[in-house]
Specification:
230 residues; alpha+beta; five-stranded antiparallel sheet; four-stranded antiparallel sheet; 4 helices
Length: 230
């Protein structure tokens, strides 16, 4: 070998050796062990991915709250609708009954009123806005919850479905999902955090050294009162 080629060959050998070392270190992170020495706070309730009750359907809510009968007023029909929407928001079949609306229903587009229903004896308030009326049809209303109502069973089931939808094979892959111990029935303002958390284990690896951390996800509600973990 000529003296001119010797440094080049030596440099190439060094690069191959370095890359080989990186590859070996990377491979040591391929086989993730069972989590141990997990840092952070472990929530008390274990969740089985994909387990629990399915999401409540519109048909099930309609069966639980029959339509208003002949001669029913507009308020009666609206309270039937609000009871069904409350069941769908809570995502759990519990006793529900009508409350009342403040004054008469809005007579012009854009006008609002408030109505209440009771879910498991918890008062749930809705804002009702008149959106207009097509000729020959009943008045139309947009409804917005001002009180969100939820159950522990429904939140646990929602998180189980959330975890089951994740098939990530990496740092976000769910492992040992858990939640706070929630009240049987509780309320929370729509569009805000409930103050409770669910979690799974987040992991990272460097040169074969694994670190495990409890990854807390706030239990939130969207503007319609539905639970979300995003």
């Amino acid at each position: 070998m000529s003296r001119a080629l010797a440094p080049t060959v030596a440099a190439a050998t060094a690069v191959v050796t370095l890359l080989s070392g990186c590859t070996e270190a990377s491979h040591r992170c391929d086989d993730r062990p069972e989590p141990s020495d997990v840092s952070g706070h472990r929530r008390p309730v274990a969740i089985r991915p994909g387990g629990g009750i399915p999401a409540l359907t519109t048909a099930a809510a309609a069966r639980a709250v029959p339509a208003a009968g002949p001669g029913a007023t507009g308020t009666d029909r609206l309270l039937v609708r609000l009871q069904r929407e409350t069941l769908l928001m809570a995502d759990d079949l519990r006793p529900v009954r009508p409350g009342r609306c403040t004054g008469t229903l809005p007579a012009r587009a854009g006008a609002t009123t408030r109505c209440t229903v009771f879910y498991a004896d918890v008062e749930v308030t809705w804002k009702v806005e008149r959106t207009g009326t097509q000729r020959g049809t009943r008045p139309r209303y947009a409804t917005t919850p001002l009180t969100g109502v939820h159950t522990a069973r429904a939140v646990y089931a929602a998180y189980a479905r959330h975890v089951a939808r994740s098939d990530a094979d990496g740092p976000l892959a769910p492992r040992d999902p858990r939640c706070d111990r929630l009240p049987d029935v509780f309320t929370a303002p729509p569009g805000e955090d409930t103050g409770y958390f669910c979690q799974d284990i987040l992991w990272s690896c460097r040169s074969g050294d694994f670190d495990f951390t409890w990854n807390d996800l706030p239990v939130r509600t969207d503007d319609h009162g539905k639970v979300t973990f995003e």
